[in-house]
Write a structure and sequence with these properties.
heterodimer, A: alpha+beta, Sufe protein. Chain: A, 3-stranded antiparallel sheet, 3 strands, 18% strand, B: alpha/beta, Aspartate Aminotransferase, domain 2, Aspartate Aminotransferase, domain 1, 2 domains, 7-stranded mixed sheet, 42% helix, globular
Chain lengths: 147, 391
């Protein structure tokens, strides 16, 4: 069902936890749907100097959070905003179709954290243009597969 | 790594004696039971002997037991067959919300065809209310179908009492006994049951074979049309190896029933006690005592069931969950929803179903593993720190 990479990130997740006095915190997901992802970032000189996550969800949600933090760590904020769910999927060696939304969630959680950072510091980023933090949590529409 | 199987409600391994009983019927006695020659007659003898054995374990005459392709077919046949054969009496069927999909999806199909179905609620322990059941009966009610033991939460319904109510109102009573057979004493007369569904692979028999008990005098249409097998009621060349295996499994289950129940009940209670005592924010689902002897269903708050199953699997333990992520749908199981669990709690459900090959050591290992896994997943959960840290 899952690739070895997904299982590795699920069993040995990288960057789990919280950052005290984080520069930005983003939480996305919906308890009803069974997945909530929270990402903390520390920004130094416009670079993501530290990133941590906490996730309630299935194996792929945890793996997607973990791999996303690895991808983002050390990137500039602008570059971090360019990270897509496709990169998360590729880094995991693929996800089953019904689990694609987990990668979307990771992308959204990062955006939400950067948005929080930008708002607190009165900063504007090209990658956040048109971003609406209160948009409906609707990730399940990404795929609709009947078993 | 040692693997520990705790998913006996999903399926069971075929016992060695069962396999040995089956083997000659693949090779030496391979005949078609409808054939007139010796090969056929050998098969026919095995078929009828098996029927007598299985029927005997439920206190039924041999000629009231029909072999089918499994539990789902039996459920389909019972409901579609009885409702369609009794339209002169009415078009109403009563069932409950926590039935297996073999019943629920069949009911939905019947509704599309114009039949009326009442789905009774269950209480927080999964019990149907006898008062509500009786109140739901009306002149057009043809049939009641209430499962014996629920496959997810293990709750056992008061089948004899339901049967009594059905009798009193002249309504036909079917029960899906797929999880109950081999785990509780069954006598179709004492239970006032008119039809009962069975499956062999839940009782250490082979997959793809099951049965339907039909009390004499019950009007029922055929589901599978074709040849004259099963006294013209269920067409298709009989699966003799499967039938022989089913009979052997039923015989063993029946002979060892008391010891089986005693052993599983002990292991189940030990497992439940271990979990509830060592893991906070865990909730035991289903009825505390009136339940399957090997069924444990627990919800762990703040974590998700699939992550739990994957972690257990990594420790060699096989279980199952009613979480949405394992069901392929967006909602947690209909059973957990029906007993009133909120989504976020139902997402963290775990079913461990014990069987004949489990041991006390395995149960203790499962508890130990769960303590570790639940802690690890909770430390990752943004829901848990809100509770623990008040953050």
């Amino acid at each position: 069902m899952y690739t070895d990479k997904v299982m590795d990130h699920f069993m040995n997740p990288r960057n789990v936890g919280e950052i005290e006095n984080a520069d930005g915190i983003g939480e996305v997901g919906n308890i009803k749907c069974g997945d909530i992802m929270r990402i903390y970032i520390k920004v130094e000189d416009n670079v993501i100097a530290d990133i941590k996550f906490k996730t309630f969800g299935c194996g792929s949600a945890i793996a997607a959070s973990s791999v996303a933090t690895e991808i983002i760590m050390g990137k500039t904020v602008e570059d971090a905003l360019k990270v897509t769910n496709k990169q998360v999927i590729d880094a995991l060696g693929g996800l089953p179709p019904v689990k694609i939304h987990c990668s979307v969630l990771a992308e959204q959680a990062l955006k939400a954290a950067i948005y929080d950072y930008a708002t607190k510091n009165n900063l504007e980023f090209e990658g956040l243009k048109g971003y609406n933090p209160v948009q409906d949590h609707d990730h399940h529409d990404v795929v609709d597969i009947e078993f | 790594m040692k693997r520990i199987y705790m998913d006996y409600s999903a399926t069971t391994p075929v016992k060695q004696e069962v396999l040995e009983a089956m083997l000659p019927y693949f090779t030496e006695h391979f005949g078609n039971a409808s054939s007139i020659h010796g090969y056929g007659q050998d098969a026919k003898r095995a078929l009828e002997a098996s029927r007598a054995i299985v029927a005997g374990t439920i206190g039924a005459p041999a000629d009231t037991f029909y072999f089918t392709g499994g539990g789902s077919e039996s459920d389909n046949w019972a409901l579609k067959g009885v409702m369609k054969a009794n339209t002169a009496k009415g078009n109403h069927l009563i069932t409950c919300k926590i039935e297996h999909h073999g019943i629920l999806h069949t009911c939905e199909t019947l509704e599309k065809e114009g039949f009326e179905v009442t789905y009774l609620d269950v209480d927080s322990e999964g019990m149907v209310s006898l008062e509500a059941l009786e109140a739901a009966i009306k002149p057009s009610t043809v049939m009641i179908s209430i499962m014996f033991i629920n496959n997810e939460i293990g709750t056992m319904q008061p089948i004899a009492e339901i049967g009594k109510i059905a009798r009193k109102h002249g309504v036909i009573f079917h029960t899906d006994a797929v999880q109950a057979f081999g785990n509780v004493k069954i006598d179709v007369d004492e239970l006032n049951v008119d039809l009962m569904s069975f499956s062999a692979h839940k009782i250490y028999g082979p997959k793809g074979i099951g049965g339907l008990y039909i009390r004499k005098g019950i009007k029922i249409q055929n589901l599978i049309e074709g040849g004259a097998q099963e006294r013209k009621r269920r067409a298709g060349t009989e699966n003799i190896p499967g039938i022989v295996g089913f009979a052997k499994a039923a015989e063993i289950a029946n002979e060892n029933l008391d010891a089986h129940i005693e052993k599983l009940t002990y292991l189940r209670d030990r497992l439940v006690k271990g979990i509830l005592e060592s893991i906070e924010y865990s909730k035991y689902n289903g009825h505390p005592t009136l339940r399957h002897p090997g069924n444990v269903n627990v919800c762990f708050e703040f974590i998700e069931g699939e992550a739990l199953l994957l972690s257990l699997n990594a420790k060699g333990i096989a279980g199952s969950s009613g979480s949405a992520c394992t069901s392929g749908s967006l909602d947690p199981s209909h059973v957990l929803m029906s007993i009133g669990l909120p989504h976020e709690i139902a997402h963290g459900s775990l079913r461990l179903s014990l069987g004949d090959f489990n041991s006390e050591e395995e149960v203790d290992y499962a508890v130990e593993s769960l303590v570790e896994i639940v802690h690890k997943l909770r430390m990752m959960s943004p829901l848990y720190d809100k509770v623990k840290g008040g953050k």
